[in-house]
Amino acid sequence: MIKVSQGCLGEEEAKEVLSAFEYGYFGLAAKVDEFEQELKNYLGASFAIATNSGTNAMHLALDALGIGKGDEVIVPSLTFVASFQAISATGAIPIACDVLPETLLIDVEDVRKKISENTKAIMPVHYMGNPCDMDALLKLKELHGIRIVEDAAHAFGSTFKDKKIGGFGDITCFSFDSLKNITCGEGGVIICNEKELYELCRKKRNLGMDRKNQTTTSWKDRSWSYDVDTQGFRYHMSNINAAIGLAQLKKVDKFISRRREICNKYDEAFRTESNIKLLRVDYTTAAPHIYVIRVRNNLRDPLKQHLKEQDIETGISYIPNHLHTFYRKHGLNLPETEKAYKEILTLPLHCKLSDSDVDRVIACTREFLDQKRNKVSPTKV
Question: Is-catalytic flag, 308?
Answer without folding.
Answer: no
